[in-house]
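INTERNAL AUDIT FORM
Audit reference: QA-55
Scope: verify that the stored structure record matches its stored sequence.
Auditor: D.O.
Record contents follow.
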Amino acid sequence: MTVDPTRETLGFQAEVRQLLRLVIHSLYSNKEIFLRELISNASDACDKLRFEALSDPALYEGDHDLKIRVFVDKAARTLTISDNGIGMSRAEVIENIGTIARSGTREFLEKLTGDQAKDAHLIGQFGVGFYSSFIVADRVTLITRRAGLAPEHGVKWESTGEGEYTLENVEKTGHGTDVILHLREGEDEFLEPWRLRAIIHKYSDHIALPILMKKEGSDEEERVNQASALWARPKSEITPEQYEAFYKHVAHAFEPPLAYVHSKVEGKQEYTLLLYIPQHAPFDLWDRQQRHGIKLYVRRVFIMEDMEKLMPHYLRFVRGVIDSNDLPLNVSREILQHSRDIDAIRAGATRKVLDLLEDLAANEKEKYARFWKEFGRVLKEGLGEDFANRERLARLLRFTSTASEGDAQDVSLADYVARMKEGQDKIYYVTADSYAAAKTSPHLEVFRKKGVEVLLLSDRVDEWMLSYLHEFEGKPLASVAKGELDLGKLADEAEKKTHQEDAEQFKDLVARIKEALGDAVKDVRVSQRLTESAACLVTGEHEMSMNLERLLKAAGQNVPGVKPVLEINVHHPIVARLRDETDAQRFADWSRILFDQAQLAEGGQLEDPARFVRTLNELMLALAAR
């Protein structure tokens, strides 16, 4: 018996085994999507060959007629999807099918619950491609050869999807890939040509390559799909269902898009774009190395995918295609990095996406609220990345405020300005590491008393965003936790006079507290902010906020500590009692308690929690003994 020395049995990566089980069970109710996924993969493989052949035409090996073929063998109970695209080498087969080399995969899989409906949605966000074969097949055979390699370097991959796969070298004359599905019992519908044609019309009619099947009762092949670039057709000829099907193809998605824009731009630059906003954020949205979702074509010829230069990073969730009439077909990725034409296309595409978002915000508020929930934090990045569109982005921002019901982020800056009280000249905000901390911040007390709305900012990106967003419609943004509070016309003369009198009356107490706290504080002063709490901490108007300091330290940044100002509420019973304290040690302990409580109230962490508890207990015992 001759043993093939190239044959080996390998195990799937643990994440692949888990994903295979979930795909089979969670997507079974929509099992026909396996054909859509395999045809999309075949289309991508042909696109990649076309791109690589721009610099190396020999890769075509004389076969320039790129196509996808679908055929059945009822006797053998097999369904084959074949392409003459780029193909794969042995190493690429292992990398692309045996493993999932994507950041965040383990965390993604941990989110899956076992609820088939919910898991199907999440799996759709992840993208499953080839693995969907096992929804209908109990064995899958893949035969492939990478363009440019000799025929004897073909590779045969086979698996039942249960943990292992076999790999061996085989002879393959043509480049490309054949995926052969050995259908499970009960899946006979996928051996019927009429059923396959219906699925292709439903999901893959827009594929720009011809999809071929044999005519009924003949060996002659015919094209099943329209095979014309959808984006190049007039909008009046495209149905909503076709737009949706193309989105699912280009984004490898399982649900319709939230919104899309299809536009032909003419002028110095001529290009067509078809761009989609997904309903849900991809699982790897916060991976800075994650793939971008734009494919570049030149005169309907695929050039490259993942074109980060075609869309700013803060719009990395956008999916779709851009087709240029002006770029050369042999353009390289390196040339694109420094191309004025690409810069102009990027600026135009960005404007179209922002137009779409503005339309949603104005006319489809519920849909925009869904968009903001998924992508709002990413859009905030644009304030620092895109100076040209900063004003437009500011209008698209949504926040929670003290006027909101619950924690819904539904307040625009325009809404806020329209509701500003007479005499108010600033947009007030507070930052914290959670909505709860922002909502209960002691810095809000005087604003609540006066009925002045304050924005509650608790996203991590907010502190960074605020370094670029200084004003809106001529109204400066002001932190309620920075600098000496100046309410301007919102404070009447009687309040100003009372504050001055309090400052004078309690100046000795302020000096004693400052001496007791020493280097822990920059200063101590009588507060205008507080109406209920005993004390709060504030920083200088142009200094880093204490919330930002905590965020940077949590991220491992070495930042100089900000010395805060302690503000005291002289009308609070504890502060009033402290004025009469004659014991120096107890006075120092109470001063430190006020400082530590102020830190805790705004979400800070104490350097020595045990000392705080011990001191507090001692003071409580001393009071109880009196």
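Auditor finding: record pair retrieved intact. Confidence is low (pLDDT under 50) at residues 101-105, 119-127.
Action required: none
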